[in-house]
TrEMBL record, chains A, B:
Gene3D superfamilies: Winged helix-like DNA-binding domain superfamily/Winged helix DNA-binding domain (1.10.10.10)
Record-annotated HTH arsR-type domain positions: 9-103
Name of the protein in question: ArsR/SmtB family transcription factor
Organism of this sequence: Planomonospora corallina
InterPro entries: ArsR-like_HTH, HTH_ArsR_DNA-bd_dom, WH-like_DNA-bd_sf, WH_DNA-bd_sf
Amino acid sequence: MEADRIPRHPDVRTITLQRVLEAIVDPVRRSIITQLCDASGDIACGGFDLPVSKSTATHHFRTLREAGLIRQYYAGTSRMNALRREEIDEVFPGLLDAVVAADRGPSRNGGSP
Amino acid sequence: MEADRIPRHPDVRTITLQRVLEAIVDPVRRSIITQLCDASGDIACGGFDLPVSKSTATHHFRTLREAGLIRQYYAGTSRMNALRREEIDEVFPGLLDAVVAADRGPSRNGGSP
């Protein structure tokens, strides 16, 4: 039905660490991942708190999707974004958790004995 | 004594996730980290298996050192490289392990149920 509106997603078996790292090295894209991790559900493209224009954000969403980190789908007219957490965790165990935790930086603030 | 030959290293408290990710997004630099993880001790600059020239490798070592990932020191005329594992683990728990494991890619090959 809406297949032509739904963008392609890479198979989890073709996701590479190189693409994942190239995706999350960008602070805006890392923020998208962190916000998805913190959210109780999926987030519409317009629902993120991002310091960039809508068109720039669209580019970042695409990069994340092509790297295999997020899955995009339509809910009515909204393009929704879902973290492919279980798939990523299966291929690269611990990576997402470590990056998101590091992005929050708790160990730096509370690391003193 | 040899203070002028020993390069500066960032304090662990100033190491940022951004710099760390910018360092390890490069496959050659990631290979240096992986080889240091696999080694039983520190490795001289000439002791790595790298697909780049000596001068390019020197640039990569510098980037890793400035990001806070490795510590360099002299042993005679050899410049040695040590992974700052404990310090990195303290600031960004699980990050190094996850990246090195992902770089080896075991989960992709053995992940089928």
